[in-house]
Amino acid sequence: MSLSGTAPTCDGCDREISGPVHRTGLDRLCAPCHQQHLADHAPADADEIAAAHIASWRAAYAHIFPSTIFDDPEFDESRYAMWRAWSRSPTADGRLIVAVAGDRTVGFAHTGHAEPAATGQRWGELYAFYTHPDAWGSGAANALMAAALDHLASLGHGRAILWTFSDAHRARRFYEKTGWEPTGEVDIWSHYPEAPAPSVEYEHAL
Q: Hey, CA dihedral for 203, 199, 145, 147, is it positive or negative?
């Protein structure tokens, strides 16, 4: 929020807006953030989605998982294989939204219905949310989150959940800045048995 008489601040990248102010809903955006655009996933995006997924993990979770996990060739290979094999969301009414800067895919959000057992009722869920470190601070994540929440609301949900690692401090700050609140639910993510990672649940009113 800018003081009267000072330049307005972009809600996408938090920088002062020196040129025209673009409005998207209630957000004030600078020209570069306004030029970010979103689209539904297409097969041609697979390798760029994988690259964003891999780079985000390496940058955001290096303090959570040992380097041996990232050094294993399987770490990259499994993600490229997963995204190359992706054809559509495996969940009913699921959607994979990608953030594009210029001609490059720099992030993605996967949304859909939560498992009923997860909440005791039919809520939405943000299954995955990643942006390439090159796009951090660019406004891409804000636009992507807005689109993800819009899709969850369009499914008729009143609330949505997500899970993230307890020690994913940057991600947790971003989620809280965009309206997510911790529920108090915790779990252990044990995909890598040698490095079980405590996880926390968040919720968002839609």
A: negative
DSSP 137: T
Look up the pTM and report it.
0.78
* DSSP secondary structure of 153-171: HHTT-SEEEEEEETT-HHH
Report the relative pairing of strands 37-40 and 27-29 from DSSP bridges: unpaired
Give me the residue label for tokens 């041609």. Answer: 44
Q: Which residues pair with 130 in a beta bridge?
A: 108
**141 vs 146: CA distance, rounded Å:** 9
Give the Å distances, CA to CA, from 151 to 106, 123, 159, 168: 19, 12, 12, 25
Strands (E), 91-152: 95-101, 104-113, 124-131
Secondary structure class of 121 (helix, strand, coil) = coil
pLDDT in tens, 82-122: 998 886 655 657 888 888 887 788 999 999 988 765 556 77
